[in-house]
Amino acid sequence: MGARIGLCFVVLLFGVRDLNLCAEIVKASDFGWSEADATEAFQNAVLSSADTVIVDLQSSDWLVAPNDFYDLRDKTIIFQPGVQLVAKPGAFTHNNDCLIRLDGDSGNVAY
To answer: Model confidence over 14-45: pLDDT tens digits?
Structure first.
């Protein structure tokens, strides 16, 4: 039994050697948050090269227009406690508009 556990540990150790354990993290507000319309900052943060986006707490809600992301892959979006992503009044004119829509070949996206 002890030999099996040791062997599994060695396999696990060598199995993860190629993982990239260094995440690139950005705060969405660094992309120009605006109280009147935070859409551009939110979209630019999500579309950045960073694999992790933190939507950080601001003095008011994140008012955004519809956000359609195509072929978005390998991205984590974290909303800090208290953050609210809110539909910008008048910006959602179609029945199928969404706060966040992932289209195309999007995958491995968590939020």
So the answer is: 444 444 557 799 999 999 999 999 999 999 99
- Residues 49-101 have pLDDT tens digits of 999 999 999 999 999 999 999 999 999 999 999 999 999 999 999 999 999 99
User: Following DSSP, what letter does each residue of 64-76 receive, concatenated?
Assistant: E---EEES-EEEE
Quote the tokens at residue 31: 């992309």
Task: Spell out the residues 6+ positions from residue 31 whose beta carbon is closer than 8 angstroms to its own.
Answer: 40, 41, 42, 44, 45, 48
Q: Which helix (H) or strand (E) holds 26?
A: strand 25-27
Tokens 């029945």 identify what position? 95
Among all chains, which residue has been given the structure tokens 């955004």?
64
CA separation, residue 69 to residues 14, 43, 45, 64 (Å): 36, 8, 12, 14
Q: What six digits make up the tokens of 62?
A: 């994140």
- The domain locations on the chain are 21-110
